[in-house]
Amino acid sequence: MLLTEWNQILDNILPDESNEAYISDVFARPLINALGFNQQELFPQFKTGTGAVDFAARKNADTDIFISSKMNPYLLIEVKARATGAGAKINLSEGTPQYIHTKEQIKKYLLDSKCNTSHWGIITNSVHIQLLRRHGKVVFPATPSILIKKDNINAIVSHVKYLIDNPPKALTVCVYNNKGGVGKTTTTVNLAATLAQQGKRVLVIDFDPQQGDLTKSLGLQVGKISLYDCLSDRDLNIHDTVQPFTVKFKSSKSLQFDVIPADPKLGGFTEQDLATRIEKGSARLKDALKAFIYEYDYIFIDCPTNWMFFSQSSLYACDAVLIPTKHNNLASLDNAAKVIKELVPKVKAARRDGGPIALPIFFNGETITLPQLKIANQEIEAIITKEIKASKFNLLPYFYPKYGTAAKDTTIFSLPSYAIVAGAAFARIPAAFKDSTAAKYYLELAKEYFIV
Ligand SMILES: Nc1ncnc2c1ncn2[C@@H]1O[C@H](COP(=O)(O)OP(=O)(O)OP(=O)(O)O)[C@@H](O)[C@H]1O
Ligand SMILES: [Mg+2]
User: Fold this and answer.
1) Predicted confidence (pLDDT) per residue in 127-171, tens digit
2) Which helix (H) or strand (E) holds 257?
3) Cis before 244 (ω within 30)
4) Residue 88 in contact with residue 82, Cβ under 8 Å?
5) Distance of alpha carbon 355 from alpha carbon 357, whole angstroms
6) Secondary structure (DSSP) of 175-193
7) b/e map of 347-363 (b: 16 or more CB within 10 Å)?
8) Helices within 95-165 (DSSP H only)
9) Hey, which end of the chain has fewer CB within 10 Å, N or C?
């Protein structure tokens, strides 16, 4: 669409009296058309399963006309008014209650039963617009909530159109807690194995070069070229760092996931060295991994505990952060809160592309008795209350994701302690590949967070 046409549209919107129906007609419809969907590929008030989203869109395929079949939507759009009747502005800038509510609304629609094929959601009131992406069970920002102006509307529309026309395949997940020994490496390797078992293409990056635990636990070595070489020299092909990890079973079936092994060379540098040797610093890993996001279903990054180059790069590169904790270790709960309220927002502010998000915490690798659970819940409630008082940051959805006004459900997913998981570090094979109970535990974890 021509800029003059957008200018006309934006000029015509009455700032204080534009209700939702009006914004839908004069702004949302032209927007969806500009994103490449014609009138037959757009359906208003689409029934998602539990509610109705303002618009759903999907390209027609031969005889499958979306407006007739009303099935398999690709993009959902939730429209809001600019102002209420009383003239109070509806503010969809990040962090406002109206924004949080609208984001939760589109998230629910994207995950609803009739929207399994949906990849994208848009929330807009013609003042702000945000694109969100859905991958399995995870919904996360693909752009920040952007303030629309005459001079950026064309750029916004082309960027959103580019993203929805070229959907990445992968969800990139960093497993992180800045408390050590909580099971980051173990979780990464077993989730990778489990998702490979589920037929997914998985890549794991061992970005903890000082320990290299993940690489060692699989008996792998640095490939044809090393990760450091690749990060410091953009002309090298990052595919040459990838090592396949394959297990052949007695049944002659084999399973594989790919690994970029830890590079000991990286481990030998100081923070200062890394900053001068790697152009773009902690933003470089994300750049390098772009080569993989159209190839793999999942990319996992294992990183060290300290908040330094490697963990900062990993959070910068990922869509979502998975945070293992221990119910009996207060530091692991406190540090999880720090990741959620401080480190993720810090990286988000630097990236300016909407990401990353923190996923709700889980308890890893301990048997939990009822009295212990009670103590853990008291600690968590204290952490939540303290943070609300100190900064108004609401940690509740990150600790108790099932907690609602109707059901005060304080369930936290718990991955049991299991000796075979601990022993697997020396077996050169992930526990989830060699033991059916371990496989079951990690499949439950994968289902809780990632796969539908
Ligand atoms: N579910 C589990 N059951 C039994 N043992 C476990 C489980 N999860 C992790 N462990 C064990 O706990 C120890 C710490 O795990 P791991 O090395 O994965 O933690 P980490 O967070 O990566 O540590 P680091 O901070 O050193 O990188 C290991 O010995 C591992 O085998
Ligand atoms: Mg580790």
Assistant:
1) 999 999 999 999 999 999 999 998 899 999 999 999 999 999 999
2) strand 254-260
3) no
4) no
5) 6
6) E--SSTTSSHHHHHHHHHH
7) bbeebeebbbbbbbbbb
8) 97-110, 153-165
9) C
- Residue 345, SS3 per DSSP: helix
Distance CA 193, CA 219 (A): 15
Residue 36: CA atoms inside 13 Å, Cβ hemisphere, count? 15
In CATH terms, the fold of domain 3-165 is tt1808, chain A (3.90.1570)
Half-sphere CA count of 354, side-chain side, radius 13 A: 17
Residues with CB under 5 A from ligand 2 (ion): 184-185, 213
pTM over 0.90: yes
Name the residue ranges covered by the structural domains of the chain. 3-165, 171-449
**Secondary structure letter of residue 67 according to DSSP:** H
- pLDDT tens sequence across 256-297: 999 999 999 999 999 999 989 998 899 999 999 999 999 999
Q: Tell me the C-alpha distance between 76 and 74, whole Å.
A: 7
Closest ligand 1 atom to 304 CA: 27
What is the number of the ligand 1 atom nearest to the C-alpha of 364?
1
Left, alpha or beta for 260 (phi > 0: left; psi -120 to 50: alpha)? beta
Which ligand has the shortest distance to the CA of 191?
1
- Which residue CA neighbors atom 30 of ligand 1 most closely? 422
What residue ranges line ligand 1, CB within 6 angstroms?
A: 180-186, 208, 211, 213, 304-305, 364-365, 415, 417-418, 421-422, 425
- Encode pLDDT of 182-201 as tens digits: 999 999 999 999 999 999 99
